[in-house]
């Protein structure tokens, strides 16, 4: 099982209302992709935290992650949510099964 965590800072013109809309759009769009087994979306609680919000997705393997990222819903999401509102991002990918060799993820 693979989990990809994406951390984002927002452009200065993004309002709290727009962030709420982005979170809702993330949920409704990405959950349409069959390969995505689980999705988490959240906004920061403390103003001192460097990242404004995050998205994490769980998939069966890196191959399934690639398929999910090649889905038309994903392309639409990136264009309408990420490109229009995100200033910086950091994407981290993790293997979640103990003792599994990551080369087989």
UniProtKB/TrEMBL annotation:
Any Pfam family the entry gives: Dabb
Q: Could you tell me which PROSITE patterns the record lists for this protein?
A: S_R_A_B_BARREL
Entry protein name: Stress responsive alpha/beta barrel protein
Q: Stress-response A/B barrel domain: from which residue to which, for each copy? A: 2-94
């Amino acid at each position: 099982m693979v989990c990809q965590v994406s951390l984002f800072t927002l452009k200065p013109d993004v309002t709290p209302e727009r962030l709420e809309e982005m979170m809702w759009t993330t949920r409704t769009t990405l959950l349409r992709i069959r390969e995505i087994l689980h999705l988490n979306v959240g906004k920061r609680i403390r103003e001192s935290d460097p990242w404004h919000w995050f998205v994490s997705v769980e998939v069966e393997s890196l191959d399934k992650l690639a398929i999910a990222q090649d889905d038309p819903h994903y392309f639409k999401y990136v264009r309408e949510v990420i490109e229009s509102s995100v200033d910086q991002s950091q994407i981290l990918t993790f293997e979640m099964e103990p003792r599994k060799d990551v080369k087989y993820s």
